[in-house]
Amino acid sequence: MSPVQGTQAPGRDGVAAEPGRESTPPEPAPTPGDPETPAAREQLDHDDEVDTGGEHAWDSRRDLYRHSPGIMLDHSARLGGSLVGGDQHGVSGGHVTGDVILGGSKIEYHLGGDGEETSGEIPVAEVEALALSFVHSTSPQDEESERVPASCGEADATWQPDSPFGLALDLLRRQRVAVISGPATTGRRTAALMLLRAAGSATYRALDPALSPGRYAGELRSRCGHLLADFATSAERPLREHHVRALSEKLHATESHLVIVVGPHPVVQGVDFVSWQLPEPDRILRGHLRHKDLGGRAIEDLLALPAVRSVLAHRRPVAELARFADRIAQHACGVLSLDGLAMFGYYAAERQVRRWFDGMDQTLHDKAFLVALAAFDEAPYALTAELSDALFGLLQRIENPDEPACIPVFGTSSAQRVELAQADRYQEAEETEWGPVLQTKIQFRDRLTAITLLREVWTGHPSARPAMVAWLRKLAFDPRPLVRNRAASTTAVLAQADLPSTMALLIQPWAADRRFRARLAAASALALAHHLGAPHVPHILRAWCAAPDHHMRRTAVRTYALVGETFPGHALTALIEAVRALESRGSGPARAWPEEIDEIAQSAATLLLAADQYTALSEDVGHADSAQGTEVTGGRGTGAAADTATGLWPRLVPLTRHSATREFALRTVIHACGPTDGPPDTGRPLLLDLFARARSAPATPGAFLRQSLAALWRSILNDPMSSVSGLEAMRRWIRAADRDPDAERALAELLPMLAVTAEDAKRLVYLVDNLRGGESEQFPPAVARRLRATLPVPGPSARPSSDPTP
């Protein structure tokens, strides 16, 4: 559930210099490759001068959850280390040899050397084994496909003439040569072999893709099916029309066939090619499961398992689905548990990351893009590419310090980069301060890839750390909120993988910084790290809340606003103790630090409102999981959350009776009056909604909550320092009730509870009588007149106070 919008509540978030025993930790030593040179640092300081006022805590929480990747708050991201047993060694700590080809076998050809053959035989048995599980990218209807016997695959079934397979086969039969194009993960090699098989080939040979196109005519054998896989085309090495015609002429003479497999963006001139499309994942699994021992289990029942559906939620490489089919068969026969089956997605993400970073196939520029995409998953593509170039420059400074980073300005194909990353581009509106803006975004197809990749780079490739640290420090001060939040979310993943190093290199220096954006980055990173399952975050916040450095204290206070709803009782206690500690730090009362008190009040208001939302979310998740027969793990139970949501607000009432905490309690309520369940100036105020939903039956927690909120409101209206802000908040509530009948009913119940004395009644009557909907209106809105009728007639008598006793 995304947090709702909030309006700016009174108060500022400025940096208050504390008199007395104040010392700021020295700046951390410069990191190699750190862009924060003295000149850049001076510019950052200048740019941040207008930012020292900060933003309201509720707005910080809203932006954090709005701009964070969806998986950051998902339970599936809460796995330690390399996702295997919680060890923090990264994916490079394991060992996997080679890539498994569809069907579970692989043939390696050592071609092109001195005295070696430039082609190699492909065993017929392998081709027949692949035919058993092969499925077309477009095939007959499912009911016909289900009738294909287990002894054969769709390679022996009929196919639609206008399907990619049918078009390529028609081209192969007419010209004896066909070119199919597609990504390496779509099973294009197997499709090429099935085309040769369908064309009548009895033997098969693989040609060396490193030869020049003009040499292949001399490599063809008689009455043989030839496969030229992974033929790389480029502007310097295009596949031209005369190459294909020469091959076609020789193939007709030798009664042979040839299928050329090229990438998804081939450079061809005058050559027809067919784009190979990946079949639907569930159809690929059916093709593999059809001839496996499933222990009597039906294929449809196995495909309906939640662990299987989660893997099929997006497109995956064909070879990966072949391995998954083996796992499903093991589970069906009782060899593999359901939990083991569910872990396949994590293992698959690790294997893919290992292929990218442990090999030499990708350039440093490509790897920088992959890291940037992991940090900016589900973000605009142009932004991701821009910031990946900045990371590339820092990585290049480490790998080749004597060579400047050369970035091809117009030489990089966006389509090729997206395909390399196994990602998808899509159109979606991006929320901005001016409203939604349509953007072209990019995301990994496998939602687990981003977090897995960041953990691997941080823990498995520590040589990249200086560049990563410098890059994230720069992002934390970017003028774009999305970029700043992604710096925090990336740091959170790093903290979950290696808390000590991430704290020392990033979070602690940010927390001790005098600039608000740095402290907000630390707070956001800790909040998201806690959601990911990083240890000791509550302990860190308690220690910082009592630190002598007021920058560290304010970072902890803001963090409680962002994550305190997950442990609201402890968070509220820590904030109250922080207020009481202010008076003991100086020679004067706590009012000597009004800005720090106001910031603590903002955080308290935010966590109190968020705790109610967290309760509703926990209950929704609990109901959904119960309906699916799954157990809710992680976080608090729904019952505990409900008890906490109704028990927090009454704790503020006794604080209003003590001078050290009174201002904090009243400011907390005033700040909580602003946020609504809609955009600014619209929607129902969340605190009023909480009052409306509380049960009014006597001797119930809901009734106690209502009495507590009314008592807090009376304290505000009777306090000379807070009454003005309180009356303005009440005006906003009444205006909101003009368009919300439920809010009006709640106010009709609340206002009489506030008119305890004659002075209270006079104040509220004056408020509603003088309320105007706009400057041009001369009379109060209709809702004000209706609410006026609920108030008692002001008189000399007074009712006794009904403040609840905790």
Describe this structure as you would to a colleague.
The protein is α/β, with parallel strands linked by helices and 806 residues long. A hairpin with a 2-residue loop joins strand 10 and strand 11. Helix 2 crosses helix 23 (550-563), helix 21 (516-532) packs across helix 23 and helix 25 (594-628) packs antiparallel against helix 26. The radius of gyration is 33 Å and the shape is elongated. Strands 1-3-4-6-2-8 form a six-stranded mixed sheet. A three-stranded antiparallel sheet has the order 9-11-10. It contains 33 helices and eleven strands.
Mean pLDDT: 78
Q: Radius of gyration in whole Å, from Cα?
A: 33 Å
User: What fraction strand?
Assistant: 5-15%
Query: What's the total helix number?
Result: 33
Shape by Cα distribution: elongated
| Sheet having the most strands | 6 strands, mixed
Number of strands: 11
Structural class: alpha/beta
Which key phrases capture this entry?
three-stranded antiparallel sheet, alpha/beta, 806 residues, 33 helices, six-stranded mixed sheet
Task: Provide a brief overview of the structure.
The chain has 806 residues and is an alpha/beta fold. Helix 5 packs across helix 6, helix 19 runs antiparallel to helix 20 and helix 20 (499-511) runs antiparallel to helix 21 (516-532).
